[in-house]
Amino acid sequence: MIQKDILIQNLLDKGVSRVIDREHLEKQLQSGKKLRIKFGIDPTGSVVHIGHAVPILKLRAFQELGHQIVLIIGDATAQVGDTSDKDAERPMLSRTETRKNAENYLAQFGKILDLSKLEVHYNSEWMDTTNFNIVGELAKNFSVAEMLDRDNFSKRYKEGIRISLQEFLYPIMQGWDSVQVKADVELGGNDQYFNLLAGRTLQEAYGQPKQDIMTFHLLEGTDGRKMSKTYKNFIGLSDTPNEMFVKIMEIKDELIIPYFVHCTTLLLSEIEPYKIRLLSDENPKYIKMDLAHIIVSLYHGEEAAIAGKAYFEKVLTDGIVPSEEEIEKVYLSVSDIELGNLLKELKFCATTGDVRNALSGGSVRVNNEAVSDIKMTIPLSFEKGVFVQMGKKKFRNVFKK
Hints:
- The structure is a single chain.
- Helix content is about 45%, strand content about 15%.
- By secondary structure, the protein is an alpha/beta fold.
- The strands form three sheets. Strands 1-6-5-2-3-4 form a six-stranded mixed sheet, with helices on both faces.
- The mean pLDDT is about 90.
């Protein structure tokens, strides 16, 4: 069994950007006290990717040490919208939308955490009963200068980009969450630093011990940019094992070790041999294959990871079209669809420009025939799927729903 001291040091060091107050938190962890570890997420969409999972894996480490994970589903805060990593205001979502997305989030978190031991709150529990007088009392703890000192707001203010007063409320709301659940520790990305500090401010104002905070770098996607659904460069927790394996193999070589650190449950000492292998003359491809195996195993199991590797080697290395059983089935609620729209619906292409490039490059095939007409109509049926291929690695069988 791994010693508790090693697990604590790994918890505090692995993939962590900043800890406040580290000395205090380390003493708390060594004391044996059961801490309340808060993590909040706004269900602004239905997809959870492995970038989102970075703090979730840290929650798992806390959970394995016996601490209480307090998950805040921000159905109220999502309606306001956090612009921590955005250059403009975010659109407001309806409560129905946020609740539906939350169900998908919890199902995907179950791949990492023991859901039976989670304490789950929707922050509308207290936000809906927080009246304007209380909002005024909370707001007194922050100045306009402090708000504008935040990197994102400061940049927009200097560039003359509109900042609504509603956006100033978001960190106050997140801090109010910490007061409500009496958090001992809160986790978040580096972009959340200001919001996490707001929790400490409000807890102190309400006579509670200030939560320690732990932040993480934002994970880079398959193309080296920040992992984002907007950029289509993400690896989703709900991706099939084959898709996940292939996408991990697409990452740049310089991201191999960061992915070992941020996206696996290995200890730092267990990652060292991979660093040594990268510094040797070994082909990084084989180290990346080990990485893909470990990550796919984490979310889909060992057998799925072995099958994912076999799929990668057969399809991408040997150029063999996968069997029908291996190809993901997609069901659409239409009788026919234009080729350009189909490629976007399948997320093979993000824009019409991407579609035109793919078609002009001759990389698109429908039922094994090369196609180039963006307006081509594809009929769909219940019984027999339409086999769509783009390049060497994108395949779907499309049926009418």
